[in-house]
Amino acid sequence: MNNDHNEFMWLDEHHEVSLDEIIQLSGLTHDELHRLVENGALIPNNPTDDSWRFNSHYLVSILTLSRLKHDFELESDSLALTLVFLERIRTLEVQLQRSQHTNSAPTIDE
Hints:
CATH architecture: Orthogonal Bundle
CATH topology: Multidrug-efflux Transporter Regulator, Chain: A, Domain 2
């Protein structure tokens, strides 16, 4: 995995990363990422183009997936399901943070 990337990037649905950038940052192979797309775990913004681009929010889950793959010697067949679970966890964490922020907002009565 390449940790020499010194640029900052917004990780949200408004910014995109290319397939090559994901490969460079994660250390996953082109074939592994292609299988993630085929299995529906990783969804490109432009699925009909030759050069796929993805929402940058995927980077956090992809980097975690890469680390888990190397640390636990995960088989390539398990990567899609693992990514689906990681994305679900990320989504639930965002919902929880929003819920906590909404519940902690001061009201007029306070």
